[in-house]
Write a structure and sequence with these properties.
The chain is an alpha+beta fold. It has twelve helices and 44 strands. The relative contact order is 0.05.
Length: 694
């Protein structure tokens, strides 16, 4: 340590602390990398600087202990045993510094490097005045000499100003500031000479934000290395002029977060070369640090204006002054984020929003304020009630209120706004009714719809009440087929749109009807049966639909059942189908008696069974096909017999002999019904085994 700075290396070796070692340690990933980086920078400026720093720190640590403890403590600090006595002697001989003196000693080099001579002189005055340190005495002499130069330059500047020679005065002030970078007299003189004209754009632009002052400039100075020193000139709480340096510079933009709210500041930017000013400063206008509200927005309603803003941090109060159409004015009550005032007449209203701040001296300082105008527009009279009623295929609406306003019927996507909500006409959904038929929906939209009324006047609208309407969907594709035992099978196309239930009713076409609840069958014979049934989508898709209709003709109707409760229901036209009375045609073969073997022919007996009121009888066709497979249709074989429906209607039973040798045996016979009434008549067939001829 005393002959140089060394650290242990190996078992008994040592290594000198030099630039290469410090650079290597500063690049290592270790907690001490930042510290060794500072030491490496000191070493590049002065190879003996790291040694002096370590000596200063060790002497200070030893001076904190009693003299008897210092040798042992020096060993604990890692000092070489051979140098313990020498370092202890240095600790006894050097003056012990107080905390304030230590801070002054440690700040001295930085102040000197930055040419802050007044700061250096102040720090020297805090140190012991023993006059035993030649370096300190030399520094005191140099500082005194240079400050004398500053005084001479300032005096020359004052004389030049007295003569009106501002160019010479500025040069002398700049010379003084180059000598002592913290001389406030020279700085304020330069700022006074170069302050911008009122109303013009300053070369150093200062923009007040909500939480800082933003500085920007575009000028360049010959002879500068591109560095700038930014200064803020202000007065403290006692009114004393102060100067502080602004950090946070990035290129030619800086942000000052240290300006006190409610104070007035001015900024100066000095071009530098090697840390010293080389040109006149760029000076800003004065800035009153009273940020305004941000995002001021005004909206109008019926006789009302609402204001909103973002209150800047630090504001003690926000006030709003109002001036109306007729010149009336006043201060409005407001919230932290806005205000609401009502009872306003139609026309333009002016508002002045001012923020208030507590200055460092305690005074309340208002901001210049933000001014804005808002026009209170005419709004429509609201729709007060809404009703609806079916009118044929249309749906007609009636309302009260909305005097002098246009009323539109709309369907809101999602949740409907509450009645009285203020809206813009351009944001309304498409109207359901037409201009030429206002208040009428023809045809109305199928399904459940919430139809709302909106009162419209120009670009403004008010939401009104709504009516829930259900327009039932029609049923299509209805067909009916009669089954044995007085039942009927119903087929249809189930409506789309989530329809869950249908209502099916049936009633006899003529004659006395017997009622049924849809669970059992009515009377047999020619009398139809009436009834009603509610069918669900699940039940229909799972098992179809069978109805106990009896033997007579019935009219079947199917309509959609309402899906919602408490809605105005607009029914659809029912789907209808007529099921004729239960009509059947049966046939059988009557073979000759064994006693007449070879002397008689086989008879075909066809019988019509129909109640009164049947609508028509189809033609009966008897077909033969070779083999034992039954014919599949009336054309799948040879036609043997044709019996018109009129013959069956007239006689009821018709018998005909079958010709012999119809086709090579074996062959199979079968009957079919043809004509427009074939689907309405049941064909009763005998056992297939009786129809095979061998």
């Amino acid at each position: 340590m005393l002959d140089g700075l060394y650290i242990p290396a190996g078992a008994r070796g040592r290594q000198r602390v030099d630039g290469a070692l410090l650079d290597g340690l500063s690049r290592a990933a270790s907690p001490t990398a930042s510290l060794t980086g500072l030491l490496a920078e000191l070493h590049r400026g002065d190879p003996q600087a790291p040694r002096r720093v370590v000596l200063y720190q060790l002497i200070g640590l030893l001076q904190e202990r009693d003299q008897g403890e210092r040798p042992r403590y020096a060993l604990e600090l890692g000092l070489h045993p051979d140098e313990v006595a020498g370092l202890a002697a240095a600790a006894r001989s050097r003056p012990t510094l107080t905390r304030q003196q230590s801070d002054a000693a440690e700040s001295l080099a930085d102040a000197w490097k930055r040419h802050r001579l007044h700061r250096v002189r102040s720090l020297l005055e805090r140190l012991p005045q023993s006059r035993t340190d030649p370096a300190l005495e030399s520094l005191r002499d140099v500082v005194g000499t240079r400050l004398d130069v500053v005084d001479v330059a300032l005096a020359a500047a004052r004389r030049a100003e007295g003569r009106g020679d501002l160019e010479v005065a500025g040069a002398e002030l700049l010379r003084a500031l180059r000598e002592a970078a913290d001389d406030r007299r020279a700085l304020r003189g330069l700022v006074r000479h170069h302050q911008p004209r009122s109303g013009g754009r300053a070369p150093l632009h200062a923009e007040l934000r909500s939480d800082h002052v933003e500085l920007s400039w575009a000028a360049t100075v010959d002879g500068s290395d591109g560095d700038w020193r930014l200064l803020c000139l202000y007065r403290d709480a006692k009114g004393v002029a102060k100067v502080r340096e602004v950090a946070g510079q990035s290129g030619k933009v800086a942000r000052d977060y240290g300006a006190a709210l409610g104070s007035e500041v001015r900024y100066a930017a000095l071009p530098l070369l090697d840390g010293r000013p080389v040109g006149a400063p760029l000076v800003s206008h004065r800035v009153l640090v009273t940020p305004e509200v941000e995002g001021l927005g005004l909206t109008d309603g019926p006789g009302r204006v609402e204001g909103s803003w973002r209150r800047p941090p630090g504001a003690t109060d926000v006030t709003v002054e109002w001036r109306g159409v007729g010149g009336e004015s006043g201060r409005l009550p407001c919230r932290d984020d806005g205000f609401t005032t009502s009872g306003l007449s139609t026309g333009s209203h002016a508002f002045h929003v001012v923020c208030h701040y507590r200055a460092p001296g305690g005074a309340v300082v208002p901001s210049p304020g933000v001014r804005a105008d808002r026009t209170v527009h005419p709004w429509p009279d609201p729709v007060r009630s809404l009703t609806a009623r079916p009118d044929g295929t249309a749906l007609r609406f009636h309302w009260t209120g909305a005097r002098g306003a246009e009323v539109r019927l709309v369907q809101w996507p999602g949740e409907a706004p509450a009645p009285g909500s203020e809206l813009q006409t351009g944001t309304l959904p498409a109207r359901l009714d037409r201009d030429e038929r206002a208040g009428v929906l023809d045809p109305p939209p199928a399904g459940v719809t919430r139809v709302a009324a909106v009162a419209v006047l120009g670009e403004r609208a008010l939401a009104g009440p709504a009516v829930d309407v259900e327009v039932l969907r029609p049923v299509t594709g209805l067909s009916v087929q009669r089954l044995p035992d007085g039942h009927a099978s119903v087929a249809l196309d189930w409506p789309d749109g989530g329809v869950g239930r249908l209502v099916v009713t049936w009633e006899p076409i003529e004659g006395r009807a017997e009622k049924t609840d849809g669970l059992g069958s009515g009377a047999d014979g020619g009398t139809g049966v009436g009834g009603r049934r509610v069918v669900t989508s699940h039940a229909y898709r799972r098992g179809g639909l069978r109805l106990p209709v009896g033997g007579g003709g019935v009219l079947i109707r199917v309509v959609t059942a309402p899906q919602a409760v408490g809605t105005l229901v607009v029914p659809a036209a029912p789907a209808e189908a007529v099921l004729p009375p239960d009509t059947a045609i049966g046939y059988q073969l009557v073979r000759p008696s064994r006693r007449l073997l070879g002397r008689g022919r086989t008879l075909l007996r066809v019988t019509l069974s129909a109640p009164r009121g049947h609508t028509g009888v189809p033609e009966f066709v008897f077909v033969a096909r070779s083999g034992t497979l039954r014919p599949r249709s009336a054309t799948d074989g040879t036609t043997v017999v044709r019996i018109p429906g009129t013959d069956l209607t007239r006689h009821g039973t018709v018998e005909q002999e079958l010709p012999t040798a119809l086709c090579p045996a074996p062959y199979t016979l079968r009957g079919f019904l043809l004509g427009e009434h074939a689907s309405a008549v049941r064909l009763e067939e005998p056992s297939p085994a009786t129809l095979v001829v061998r």
